[in-house]
Amino acid sequence: MTTKTIQFLKELGEGFQFQYVSDLKIAKKLRIKHSRSGKIQDKESEGHGLPVLAYAFDELGNVTALCHDGKIRQYL
User: Quick one: 50 exposed, middle or buried, by C-beta within 10 A (0-12, 13-18, 19+)?
Assistant: First the structure.
């Protein structure tokens, strides 16, 4: 899942202001924020509390997440 997580983050591109990842080693390597709980923290998001490997917010506050089941999901 490590390579899938890194690939997901690289494919997101520049349209995302905030990126989080649940793996501390990946967070340090890519210099992005670490999500200690491994879940979406934004209480306003439909995906709040969803266990994820990585997620990011775009300028509008939409969430794109790589979930533990390997699927990519988007939330408002």
Answer: middle
- Model pLDDT, residue 28: 94
- CA angle 67/5/36 to nearest 5° reads 70
How many of the other CB atoms lie within 10 Å of CB of 15?
A: 11
Tell me the pLDDT band of 9, cut-offs 50, 70 and 90. Answer: confident
Contact between residue 23 and residue 5 where contact means Cβ atoms under 8 Å apart: yes
Alpha-carbon gap, residue 15 to 29, rounded angstroms = 20
Beta strands in 1-76 (DSSP E): 16-21, 33-34, 52-58, 63-67, 72-75
